[in-house]
Amino acid sequence: MIQALLHLESETITCRPITIPFNFANQDSVPKGKEVGDSIVVAPTTLRTWIRLKPLLMSIDKDDFNKLIEKSDQRTPDAELVELMAKYDELLLDIVHIGIHNKKSEPPGWFRDVLKDNCTWKDVYILLNAVLFRIGFNPFCNSITTITRDVSPIDEAGIIAAQKNLDSYKTSR
Length: 173
Fold this sequence. Notes:
The chain has helices spanning about 1-15, 45-60, 60-70, 80-85, 90-100, 110-120, 120-150, 155-170; strands at about 20, 40. The chain is mostly helical. Strands 1-2 form a two-stranded antiparallel sheet. The longest helix has 28 residues, at about 120-150. About 20% of the residues are buried.
């Protein structure tokens, strides 16, 4: 366990991206002149991306969120994962889309469509966990724990603002 945490920490500190082999079999949504390659790269999350992801992640129920995180010592049964993936389907796709893009510009809508056309629920689950890993899993989980405690650094106005930010993001797409 300690070795895994040290490895995780070193990956985060050294800012190495994760490269996940991926087969983009359905290329109907790929615009002419664009190339998707044969892998998806998830780089360490920038602060700009974190600010965009935080309200999306906060809108996932705490218990559901804990079940969506891949843990080596505990595995959520596939039936329960399928149910969670269906419950948060568009939201999880938004998180994955923003997390993969991880740039100053808006994530391209065509790439979201490509993900929709090529991902199974398990692919979205794997990509979600890759994005969470690149946020810096332990610091991220600590901040979520802090947010969900009764003594939260975010007051009621902050929570309302985060929800409004989420709502405005959803309507601006």
